[in-house]
Design brief:
The chain has one helix and no strands. By secondary structure, the protein is mainly α.
Length: 33
């Protein structure tokens, strides 16, 4: 059984992971230009 607190924590982790991936995609190619 998953409690609402765990769902909220997983949601936060998911959002942070997506933001991290987007930031890496924006930051990594820029020094090569």
């Amino acid at each position: 059984y998953i409690s609402p607190g765990d769902m909220r924590r997983l949601g936060l982790i998911g959002v942070i992971a997506v933001l991290a991936v987007l930031i890496f995609k924006l930051v990594l190619p820029s020094p090569r230009k």
